[in-house]
């Protein structure tokens, strides 16, 4: 590991999604997007649904859709505990467009409970992120 890279691990309850040496990560924090580079100070953030962009040590860029979770930086090691994380080849654009339409329809329902509205908003946010990752938005 060079002084310009650090170790990144992205895990969900089901699997290790990514593990490798990276130069930077841009992630969707609950207060907006943020970037982390090597030698970053210790840091903990809540994630919302969005697109995570990874710049690998070799220079290539990897994008995935994350569905919320937590992001921790400590001693040049980043661990992301994600509710969900999907690479472009794991996403079915047609299904996500249907989910997005359904979520938007539920958000417009005049009698929806606030908890239903929040669930629909979160689904819409995740579906939008997935569609961005596959380039279908």
Verbal overview:
This protein is α+β, with helices and mostly antiparallel strands and 137 residues long. The chain has two domains: 6-86, F0F1 ATP synthase delta/epsilon subunit, N-terminal (ATP Synthase, domain 1), CATH 2.60.15.10; 92-133. Helix content is 26%, strand content 45%. The chain contains two helices and seven strands. Strands 1-2-4-5-6 form a five-stranded mixed barrel. Strand 2 and strand 3 form a beta hairpin. Helix 1 runs antiparallel to helix 2 (114-133). It starts with 5 loop residues before the first strand and ends with a helix.
Task: Annotate the secondary structure layout.
Elements: E1 6-11, E2 16-29, E3 32-37, E4 43-56, E5 61-74, E6 77-82, E7 85-86, H1 93-107, H2 114-133
Parallel strand pairs: 1-6
Antiparallel strand pairs: 1-2, 2-3, 2-4, 4-5, 5-6, 5-7
Helix pairs in contact: 1-2
What is the overall pLDDT average? 93
Proportion of residues in extended strands: over 45%
Q: So how many helices?
A: 2
Looking at CATH, the homologous superfamily of the largest domain is F0F1 ATP synthase delta/epsilon subunit, N-terminal
Number of domains: 2
What is the distance, rounded to the nearest whole angstrom, between the alpha carbons of the first and last residues?
36 Å
Spatial order of the strands forming the largest sheet: 1-2-4-5-6
- State the shape: elongated
CATH architecture of the largest domain: Sandwich
Radius of gyration: 16 Å
List low-confidence stretches.
Answer: none
Structural class: alpha+beta
Give the CATH level 1 class of the largest domain: Mainly Beta
What CATH calls the topology of the largest domain is: ATP Synthase, domain 1
* Secondary structure: helix percent: 25-40%
Strand count, sense and barrel status of the largest sheet are: 5 strands, mixed, barrel
Instruction: Give the ordered list of helices and strands.
Output: EEEEEEEHH
Beta strands, count: 7
